[in-house]
Amino acid sequence: MQDINIRLIQPGDNQQIAKVIREVLVESGAPKKGTAYEDKSLDQLYETYQNAGEAYFVVEENDKILGGAGIAGLDMENEKYCELQKMYFLKVIRGRGIGTAMMKKCLQFAKENTYTHCYIETLPYMKAAQKLYQRSGFKYINERLGNTGHHNCDVWMLKYLNE
Fold it and tell me: Residue 31: its pLDDT value, please?
């Protein structure tokens, strides 16, 4: 991971990270409707994550963005609940420990912003992602939380941040 940099998103990153997210979703066979693919914010992630308690981080290698993930309050849920959002990595960087490093960065940000729980939604066949979430302390739950708009993401997980 010596040439890898995980940093806050910058205004000029919008186009690259949107392309990465859409590419990963298409590659995985995810539906375009009811997933991050159709989120209006996808093409303006820098602007989307400018509120207090929100951050989006990108993974950069040789000046090229290869993935990212964000933390924001979970819409229509307890104010102490955040959501891990839009965590996607291109195939070329998977299996190198970058997901674990990104998860640590995001969860640290969540704790620093006094969130007590972190929620995530994913798709049933994204098994590698689910393994990362489990290793990071997320547990499966039986109901959707908040109002994410991602009705096709029907695997729900939650982590208590003060463990």
Answer: 58
Q: What separation in angstroms does the CA of 13 have from each of 43, 64, 76, 140, 142? A: 10, 9, 28, 32, 36
pLDDT at 6 (0 to 100): 96
Q: Tokens 């996808």 identify what position?
A: 42
Task: Collapse the DSSP code of 127 into the 3-class scheme (helix H, G, I; strand E, B; otherwise coil) and give the result.
Answer: helix
What is the SS3 assignment for 71-124? EEECCCCCCCEEEEEEEEECHHHCCCCHHHHHHHHHHHHHHHCCCCEEEEEECC
Both tokens of 78, joined, read: 């307890």
Question: For residue 88, which phi and psi values (nearest 5 degrees)?
Answer: -140, 145
Which strands form 55-61's sheet, in the order they lie side by side? 4-8, 55-61, 64-73, 81-89, 117-122, 155-160, 139-141
Report if pTM > 0.85.
yes
